[in-house]
Amino acid sequence: MKNKIIIIGILLLIPFRLFANPFPKTSYEVLYKNNIRIYPSEVLFVFIDQSVLYDNSIKNKAYQMVGEWIADGRAVEVYSFSSAQPGRYTLRITGGRVDDAPTELFIDNLKRSERELFTVMHSRQRGIARRVVLHAMSQAFNESRDEIYHTDIVRTVKEMSEYIKQYRSDVKNVLMVSDMLENSQITSFYYKKRIRLIDVDKEIMKVSGKNMIGDFGRNVRVYILGLGFYNRTAWRPQSENYLDSDRINNIASFWHKYFISSGSAVIEIGKPMMFGKIH
């Protein structure tokens, strides 16, 4: 009977399909108990630009960083984005909270059957959450298309910054997986399908003049993976087969100033590869 109860509890913890996008319930929710904390200690927002066909090194680095970051008491949300065209706007794929580590007082106040059930579920919830998150990221990568000509990075950041600002957590992290090559009605880093050597200050003024600077609330840390990543596509000229350091550095400088102006701290910009981790 005891084993049957534990199995039922684990099934309640697992989403309808193990690799489906619904995030697993916390062990506290399954037992109708309050989490140790009202809100998660930290949260990570992962944004995957679907206008880029990333190579395995970029994707594997993203999986590694996010997988290593997931821990007790933290929350994570995964989004895909590219442009405002139907089916390509910002979409939340999955998101939820990882179990808080229980206190001795919490464990002591559980009934014996509840304690046994909680112990088993808690040992599995983080692993299930990790698999769901990585599957959601894989889905976003697999649905990327190089024929998406427009990328609304500025609009995505602007709109999502308002949501992130209101999100209750002590520490907030944003991971942008993108080549960061803006190509929208707001501004474009392209000219005749070639990537421009942008004037950083002019571009910042242009975006600011259209009221498209975000507002994160000054407690967000930003990481960028993939800036300047270059993948040959059918719509780019054959002569445009690489990005020189001047163009990459100016694009990196633009985004550094943009995120600083949005009230966030820029921790690392990978050009394209990041070498650190999400703290």
Topology:
Blueprint: H1 2-13, H2 27-30, E1 42-49, H3 56-69, E2 74-81, E3 91-97, H4 104-108, H5 112-142, H6 153-166, E4 171-177, E5 190-191, E6 194-195, H7 200-209, E7 220-225, H8 245-261, E8 264-269
Helix pairs in contact: 1-5, 3-5, 7-8
Q: Can you put this structure into words, describing what you see?
A:
This protein has 279 residues and is an alpha/beta fold. The chain has a single domain (40-94, 129-269), classed as Rossmann fold (3-Layer(aba) Sandwich). The protein has helices at 2-13, 27-30, 56-69, 104-108, 112-142, 153-166, 200-209, 245-261, and strands at residues 42-49, 74-81, 91-97, 171-177, 190-191, 194-195, 220-225, 264-269. The strands form 2 sheets. It has a 6-stranded mixed sheet, sandwiched between helices. It has a two-stranded antiparallel sheet with strand order 5-6. Strand 1 (42-49), helix 3 (56-69) and strand 2 (74-81) form a beta-alpha-beta unit.
